[in-house]
Amino acid sequence: MKNTAYVVVLVWSFCWLLLLFDFTNSYSTASSSVFVSTISESTMNYNYDRIDEVKKHCAPFLASASDLKPEVDTVYNIKEDLYFVDGDWRQEVGQAPLLPYIDPGNQHSNFSDFKTPLDLASFWIMDVDRSHRLKKSVSVNGILVLGTTLDSLGYKPHDDSPHFQIWSGHTQLSISFQGIYTESKKNGGERVMCLLGSTMFPSRESDSSNPWEWTKANYNQPPLLQDDQILLVLRYPMSFTLTNRVIQGEMKSLNSKSNLKYFDEVHILSQLGQSVKYEFGSERFVSKSCAPYPYNDSFVNGGIDIYKGTGFCEILGTITGEGAGPFTIVPNWRCNGTDAYCSKLGPFVSDKEIKATDGSFKGVKLFMKTIKCEQKAAQGNASSARVAAVFRVIPQRENQYAVAMRSGLSNMTVVAEGIWKSSTGQLCMVGCLGLVDSDGSTCDSRICLYIPLSFSIKQRSIIFGSFSSTSRSNDSYFPLSFEKLVYPTELWNYFRNSHPYYSYSKIEQAGAILEKHEPFSFQTAVKKSLLQFPKVEDTETLITGLSLLAEDLTLHSSAFPDPLPRSQPKRPADFQIEVLSLGPLFGRFWNVSYGDEETLYHNEAQYTEKTTSYECICSDYT
Length: 622
Description:
Elements lengths: L4 E13 L11 H4 L18 H7 L1 H5 L14 H4 L2 E8 L26 E12 L8 E12 L13 E5 L2 E15 L5 E13 L21 E14 L8 E8 L12 E6 L11 H8 L21 H9 L6 E3 L9 H4 L9 H4 L9 E13 L5 E12 L5 H5 L8 E9 L5 E7 L11 E6 L3 E2 L5 E9 L10 E6 L5 H4 L6 E4 L2 H8 L7 H9 L11 H11 L2 E4 L14 E10 L2 E2 L10 H4 L3 E2 L5 E10 L2
Parallel strand pairs: 17-20, 20-24
Antiparallel strand pairs: 1-22, 1-25, 2-3, 2-10, 3-4, 4-6, 5-6, 6-7, 7-8, 8-9, 9-10, 11-12, 11-19, 12-13, 13-14, 14-15, 15-16, 16-18, 18-19, 21-22, 22-23
């Protein structure tokens, strides 16, 4: 055997397609958007000159309002609590649509690159007039943004000045409101805002079959109408729970139907945001899915070491937090039922595009958002946590990150609540599809989720779980599994307070290949003497040296020559090799002391589309 220093290494390589767009100018907002009345926020004075009108149109809500308790801080927190971003809106079918939309597919030949537009609604309270607070109400100023867009409406305006914007693939209308905030005991307790609005919105053409005929000519200068006869009513639950979390709104025109300013009624739907306090207490629904705990699924005794420590909420929040990528839905390869049964996307309502994947769910992603996690210590070293979350499925045709930020509820959304216990490491939740009533009639799904600590050539998920049906009806579905694959540079963030490890299983085969006898070649010997190979550098610690070597072994390269020949497709493959584990190192080490290295990084000798894992031996030839 050659006198060669070597270290065991796991290498992960993968390829994917990079999208190259040739229509980058389509979303230029500087030249194609229309703004009306811009005022600096620092100089903005909020008016309450329509309060008499407000009281007239909002009389029914004032009549049923309860006294605002002075000792309760709900009124003082409404700016932080009662906003929502990227909820859903729809307009009743009629003869008076509110907004036009310019389809980019009519302007570009590569229409397939565009996603389905979203009807989004966002609302913020801009000011609360606490100095003139009444017994049953307080005056407020707010702004509502409605849009049909390929992107998002998630940016709060600098002021409440009404304005209209339009360009290819994006239409946005801002409406300023002033009105009253009240509280009521109706519907189990709700918080209501009744508001009058004013804006500049696009005029329809009354003498044309297409009310937005002007968009074909010059949408940079749309005909605008000023209107202040807009009534908006928003209803919020007094407390947010699993079955009581929906924000509902109605916006209607106070003009007569013969008036060009009239529009058909608009309905708004959203749910609680991250800042709102969630009230756990749906044990009867959780026990329906999770009793007896733990639910005995295929992962309970699957031979994978599961996280059972005191930092579950922190790790879960990091994996699913802001900027985190989606889960990958695992194809239903093991389903042996009918095509209709196996093509179901778990509890979610599958459209034609999803059904056409035949159970592979190619391109479909799953996000876990709006997580509320409360962990508490129990007797001894045991701990438990209560968790609430929203699971949202994103079809391939839609903008994944824009849709992930949505706060609306639909049949592609499951809200969930459940329990996690350190005794098993299983998070078991009940899932409710779409709009949930007080009886929980749509709460017929079970969600089991795990955070693994042991990794191998077959197990590379930092989180995995499944949806299964608790319904005995014919509408049940094959269990839907999901996972999120590990990236080497993310391991430090996800597991800095735990002890993940990699179990090597292919070392003997890799060693046999390395030590395989090769005929002597003078040319090869010269090459090896002249070339330098990555090796473990002399550093303060072995772990630091291995981490630097792992970076040196990382390879990112295009699979095609650069620049691409004209004959090549516009979507070249990108080839990457990343080191997941190197000897005793798992992930990356940033040279920050968090205790004994040997306990931080420990390995034991002992699938996803377009992705391949390798175990090999890294040898130092220099």
